[in-house]
Structure formats: structure tokens, C-alpha cells
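Model the whole thing, not chain by chain.
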Amino acid sequence: MATPRILPPTPEAHQSQLLIGSILEQSLKYEPDREIVYRDISRITYRELNKRVARLANLLTNHLEVAQGQTVAFLDYDSHRYLEGYFAIPMVGAVLHMINFRLSPEEILYTINHAEDAVIFCHQDFLPILEALQGRMEMVKKIVLLSDSGAEATSPLPLEGEYEKLLLNQPDSYTFPDLPEDAIATTFYTTGTTGLPKGVYFSHRQLVLHTFGLATALGAMDNAVKIGSNDVYMPITPMFHVHAWGFPYLATFLGMQQVYPGRYEPAMLLQLVLKEKVTISHCVPTILQMLVNSPQVKSFNLTNWKVVIGGSALPRGLAMAAMGLGIEVITGYGMSETCPVLSLTYLNKKTMAHLTEDQEADLRIKTGRPIQMVDLRLMNEEGQFLPNDGKSTGEIVVRAPWLTQGYYKDEERSLELWKHGYLHTGDIATIDPDGVITITDRKKDVIKSGGEWISSLLLESLISQHPDVQETAVVAVPDQRWQERPLALVVAKPDTSITDQDLIRHMEQFSDSGKISHYAVPKQFRFVTEIPKTSVGKIDKKRIKKELASED
Amino acid sequence: MATPRILPPTPEAHQSQLLIGSILEQSLKYEPDREIVYRDISRITYRELNKRVARLANLLTNHLEVAQGQTVAFLDYDSHRYLEGYFAIPMVGAVLHMINFRLSPEEILYTINHAEDAVIFCHQDFLPILEALQGRMEMVKKIVLLSDSGAEATSPLPLEGEYEKLLLNQPDSYTFPDLPEDAIATTFYTTGTTGLPKGVYFSHRQLVLHTFGLATALGAMDNAVKIGSNDVYMPITPMFHVHAWGFPYLATFLGMQQVYPGRYEPAMLLQLVLKEKVTISHCVPTILQMLVNSPQVKSFNLTNWKVVIGGSALPRGLAMAAMGLGIEVITGYGMSETCPVLSLTYLNKKTMAHLTEDQEADLRIKTGRPIQMVDLRLMNEEGQFLPNDGKSTGEIVVRAPWLTQGYYKDEERSLELWKHGYLHTGDIATIDPDGVITITDRKKDVIKSGGEWISSLLLESLISQHPDVQETAVVAVPDQRWQERPLALVVAKPDTSITDQDLIRHMEQFSDSGKISHYAVPKQFRFVTEIPKTSVGKIDKKRIKKELASED
């Protein structure tokens, strides 16, 4: 049978591997004196960054005795040190575990043991967490202290010393090993809908290709957000969270100035945006809301700031408020399993010049279009593809060169994730004929009522339009007749009085106008003072459902 | 021994391969109604392009019985048809051979047989070439006629019919095979310094990574030339020549409007630039010179035109003339063996705002800096690296993810090419501490005089500054005492008289001022009416040397 032509390489011909180290190398080519800024504490150039990464590599392999294939964890706020770990750990052939410090101590322990962390680089603020876990961390041999002041600490933990002092004693050059591009470079944990956290993992190749994907989608596409190497980057999604969306790798690849804000404090964030002239960031809507609401914001010029929003849907009102301040705001979509970026708002001001501001806002709050190399489709429960007709509702499934190839040491959930050869996102959406994705729900949050699917997100969006509603969360509750029915948790605005009947009347407008079906109008409401949130600020529907169930 | 962590993928997990087909897929995501224009003859949208590629795939595998691993050649001017071949042929698992129609008929025959062409898509204008070779093309079974008029032709060749008519009969969808990314996608021939043409070859993976490299270097870097998807692309380096520098793949990847000019005719080229509002092109200096010299050019606004120059050095005067017309002109460097792009001028108007126009021009005419993922160094003849100090002169050697892994069926020259694990470019250069490359000569053209190296390019540049010199070429001639000595061929300007002594005096200024050594001043001159050129317009030093040698 005929096969494609594959030729054996010439004996000495170099087979280029796509390695994290090659991302770092680019930073010396163009603007090696550009700076990486840490709060108001330190500034290093790319020349220094490269030397510090070499020092860290020496520290890891000589002093800390880290071997290839071992796991080394970081437990830090967003910092230049974390960036050094993003490079040095994978570059010596080890695996970087990014610990989510917003998890509960027991969950953190679980991830440390499950990932087989041998060494942890831990910020002083988080030492108490590890101290409380002492004796239960199965493979951790050494802990390196990260301290903004440079001070040492005393602790019952096996502290090796303070990071800066340890680095100083190491040579500033290192011969990095040749690695295969499929070597695992990073790992971290996603808190699932049920059960224990799940470990996702990414190879050198996947991270390089994700970086290329972002460089193309954000750099080479004429779009509302178009970046360049002169941009100034600051993350406002933490570095433990899906590689801060891959932007630290991208910024280093392009040699951008980078700003790391440490612990997120609104005043410090705004101060850094202004002082360092930050032009590109990413964050969840909650953080943007906080900044937009900040009393100082009106006196600032934010017209050079581009912000990619992800993590949860960008509310229209927030988008309009940000646009009003001159912030160029778009939506990105992805998840822990996907490295993360899958799609971005596409708003081409030349070809879409006819759009009104309202229509522009519509595009900015939708889920965007799949970026380069992402094959994103809708699938029904039988594994059949559904058309991009703007109406068919199905689960988003994807193929791309940067998706986790499974969950670490969890065959069963790995098989589920990759059923039918596509990665299942668990998100329910429609896709327009022009490719614009609209997520209508998480699969697990969809309400299956009388054989029809009701979108909990849509109900939340409509309920929150009532002038007295501050926040709401809609979940499915079991129903004997209809299988499931929606129940809405509602936080009323201060000094308002609001009843079930008010909200039912409010919602009936939308069923009268055909926006939703009559059967979609919720009849059950709970008035609460707070909506439970997860560690990354998303509505915790799992907990809500659990608490409702335990009432029975 | 410790090894990097490599995890077996989940059974159904999709292993993304980097395939040419995924470049084409992107064109439907953003601006599917953008057009690919062919002269003043036809316009098709990306939607149509995708369908036509499917038709061509059906034509190839059904009608023409092309199997995976076979070679299919194109012999055409720059056209949308050629672009269709760029995609469909590799996408069905075959190998695209781009025939250089500027080679001699015997060389063309050699490449057709050496590449094992099974089918040739041939423009009507080139039928006579193939007709003359009939009976000697060893594996060619079928020939498809490419005709701008759509007319059939009668020929003794095994013509299958005219391209458009054949496409019409094919279905416009096709299930493309899954291919391994290392499958060879393209091949073409480079005329070497000695002996027969050498076949280089590139895999799907290499071409995708080259495309990503260009998208990043040209799109995401803030540089004098920064492109976006709204750019309008037209090649003026032929599509048979190193994938037209990879730009047709890049333009399709980003969904740019594309303009294919067919046969290069200055009036048509300028007309298309203006009518289609072309914003990005690439060409050799000769073509730019021709356009800049065109009497019409002064009445045109070319300030939106970005031009990447390659193939040979951009003369300073030409750069200044182009800048004077508002053309944004930079230099790119690469060769057939390297896909081709290795380096590009880096001129950041923000960080280099202090540069004078003269200094800017200096940067534009140098060889630029290595782009993302290109590891480019200087090596001496012993295989040792030389420093980037702006003084050390050595051969440029490279590693990158898009270099030919050898010469097809030529083990000896493959081994030479990849000696010491780096691809040898044969170019002699210095590299500044900031990474800017200056090519001083081709290795084979360097003049080895008394143990020192004299740059023939530098001598040419200095001789051509004499007001009566129109053009010059300097080559090495054997010398009993000094091993080699420079000899200059000189074309004098019309109505001037110029002697050896005039030129020696002219050159002695430069040795007096220390620009060159005394021993570098040429003493031998030949006054000629024309400098021999190769098929791609470069000075043919091989032929000059051969002719000089045969005089003896």
C-alpha cells in the first residue's frame, strides 16, 4: 500500500525539538535590556533573567539534587521568581507543579502527594499551610523559602534557605540537556465536579505550540486586541492558574516588558498598570469589576489597556463600563485541560466597521472564534457532530496541539475526557455559521426539564436584569414530574424587598416575548446573603446543589 | 538513570499533527469571503479556494491516480492554481515538486527525473519545454494543462486535459487522510556551486512551524514591517522559489487577501499593487530596482507597501530610493535549504527612535537578526563557534525547526551540509554583539590571498562607488604567489572611458583610509558589456570563473 514519503535524516542533521528553553532564548534576540518588574520591589532585565534561570537550574540539579522526571512545585504569588521556575524547572527535565493556594489545605496536600512533589518553592505567606501538613507530604524532601524581604525564616519544615541567597551561590551559566519535546513540562490540578482534584499535564511541545498559537492569534490577526513586542504585560489571573493563560511564555517569547504584581491588591494592581504603562492583561470578570468600580479609576487614563477576559462569562454591563473607560476588552475561552486558550473574540475594525457599539459589545461578551490550529465543534451525547447553525445546542469538543492527553494517574476520567477522540469540555454551546461560539451552560449545570434543556446561565442573566437583584445562581433540583426544575438563589440589593412573585412576573415577560419557553420560568427561589464561590471565584454550583440536597 | 517524564497518551486522545491542511483550515475561520486574485483574470474567495482544493484532491487521487508518497510537479507562473497545488498535493499525502522554469531544459529534465515526477501541471507557455523533453521524462505519466484562457491544447505529450475543465468534473469535498507530520510535503532544486542541481525537501511539520515563525516574526514583533491579517499579499519572488519564501502559506493561515501576478511584467505588477492595494510583498533587489526606476512610479502612492528584500544584498542606494517613495523596505535572509526564512531586519521605531535616517538605512540593508526558533552562529573551518563581536568572520551555520534534513538521494553532499550537526549556509559573515548579521561573502567567493580572506562583496561595493561604473563582479583567480587574487569584471556606464589605473587609484583611497588592506586592492580588471547572471538573477560567479579558467 502507498504511504506518505518519510525520509531518514542525514546522520548529523539536527532534529529540532520544540522546547521551553527555546522560548526563553528568544528574549535575548531583540530587546535584552527590557525589564521584568516585580511590584515596587525589583526590576531585572532579560539578560539577568537568563542568568538567574541558569542559577536556578544549578540550584535545582546540584544543590537540591532534582533529577529529570521529578516534580518541583511552586507555591507563590505572581512574581519574577515564578517566571524563573516556569523556565528552569522544565528546562532541566523536571516537571513544574503549580500549586493552587486557594484550595483547602487538604486539597493542597492531595495535589502535593498526587503530583509527587520532591521540592517546593514556597512563599513565606504560605509556610503555615505547609507547616500544618508536615509529616503528611509523602515525597517532599526540601523546601526553598521565597521571601520579598530576603529574610530567612525558622520553621519545622526542611527549609533549604532563602531563594535569593541560594541563587547567589550558583554559577550563572548552565548547559541545559537536550530533551525530547514530548517530555512533560508542567502539571497542575483542576477541581472537578465530583471527587478529588484532577491533574492535567503539558509537554514542552504543547507549550511551545500554544505560545505560537497565541502569538499568531493575538499578534498577527487584525483584531480589537492586537499585540506587539512593545506591549507591557501584567497577569491578573494567577500564575498557578493554567500557566496564567500562557501569557508569561508569550511575553518572554516576544521580549515584552513584564510586570508581576505579587499578591493581588486592587491599589497595587492599578498603581502598576499606570506606573509601568501596562498595555495587556487578562483576568476574570470579578477582578475587572473590582477595578472598574474602584473610586480612583475615573481619574486614570486606561485607553492603552487591553484586557482579555476569561474564566466566566463577561457580563454585558461590565463590558460596556470597561469600554466606557477606554479599555479594549475581549473574551477568551479555555480551561485547565486546554493549556488554556481555545477561542478569542474576533472583532476586526476594518471588516466590521458597520457594527454599532451594541453589536460590538455583543461580540466582546460572546466566546469568540476558535484560534489557529483549534478544531472546535459541537457534539451530542451520541458522539455525533452538530451543525454550526446558531441553533443546535451541544457540548463543545476540541482537538488542538495543546490539550492534556489525560488526567495524571486517572485512567477512567481520562477515557471520559477523550471519548470519541475529542476532548470534552463539558461546556454546552451554540456556534453561529460564522464560527462565533456562545456558551449556554456547563453540561453539568444544564437543567433537563421534561426532555428539554434549560440554560441556567440564560436564566441567571435574565433574573439579574431585575433592578433589585444583585446576584443570582440557578441550579437544577430533582423533580418527580419533570425530572429536573430550575431553582434560583438570589441576593437582593441592599434596602430592597423582593418576592418570588416579583421574580416570576419579571421572568414571564421573557417567556411572553419568546426569549425563553414557558416551562423555563423558575418557580422556586431562595433569598440568600451570599452566593457560594469556588477558589477561583466561580459560582460553586456543586456546593449549592449539595447543600440543597442535604436539606431533604 | 533519571529520564524526562513521558506519559503514554490516553487511548482515544488525539495526537495533533502539524499538517499543511491545518494551515488551509484557518482561512475559513475569520474572513472566508476574502479573495485570491489572479492578474486581471479571476477572483475566488477562501470558501471557493477550499472547495477547489478538494476538487483538485479528487482529481489527483481519482482521475490522475496519484498515490501517497508520489511526486506531483507544478510548472507555472504565480497563480491561484499554484496555491491550490501548494495545498492539495501535500494534503493527499503526495509531494509537491516546484519546477524552476528558469533552469535550462536539460536541468529541468534532470530535476523531473530525479524528483520522480509522476504528474506535471504545466502552464501552456512551458509546454514547448516539456515537448522537447518528451521520451526522456522517466516516470511522468500524465500532464495537466494550465491555461489562462481555458483553451485546450494539442500536443504530443500525454495531456489529460485543461485544469479548469478537469476540476469542474470533480466533487468539491474530500476526506483528507490523516498523515504523520514528518511526511515530506514539498521538494525543489537548488543549483549548486558545482555539479548537478540538489533536491531539498520539507515536511508538513516544517512548513507549519515555518509559517508560525513568520507569523510571529512579521506579525507579533513591533518592527518597521509589522503585518496583520488585513494586509494584502502579492509575491514577486516566484512560487517555484523556496515556497515564495513561505508567504503563500502565511497569507492563507492569516486569511489575507492574496494577489497572484502570473508572469512577472513590470506594468502588470505595478497595476496590481495599486488596484488591489497590495501592502506586503517580497522580491530580489533587481525587481525592486526595476519598479523604482519605472517612469510611472512617481505618480503613485506606495506608502502602504511593505517589501521584504532577499536573494542578494539590498544596495544602500536602492534602499534610500525605496524609502524616498515611502516604501517600507527591509531585508530577509535565507536559502533553499532553509525553507527559507532565517533572519529579518529588526528596526523597532519605539526603542530605536534615536536612529538617523542613515542609520536606519544601514539596518535595513544588513542581514537582520535571526527570527524566533532560529539558532544562528558563526563557525570556523574547524567546527568551532566564533563570537558575535562584530569582527570575527566565519560561516553562518544554523539549527531551526524548518531546515532540509539533507539533499534528496545525495548522501555525500547531505553529510557536508550537516557537518558538526549544524546546517552550513556557505555564507561568510560577522555578527554584532546585538545579533545583527552582516554577510561579507559567499564562502566559495571569498578570496584567499596570502592567508587572509578578502570579501568579494566588499570589493564590489567599493568599486561600484566609482561614478563611471555601472556594475561589477569580483571573483578569485588562482595566483602562484598569493594562492588567490581578486579579479574584477566591470561594466562601464555608457559614454565613459575608464581604465585599470583609474580603478586602482579609486580603490587605493579605501586602502589608504583603512577600509580595506593594501593587499585587497585588485590589480586585474576586465571591461565587459554584461555580467553573467544565474536563472534567479544573481551574479553567476561559477560561470565567470569557469570562463576565465578556460582562457588559460
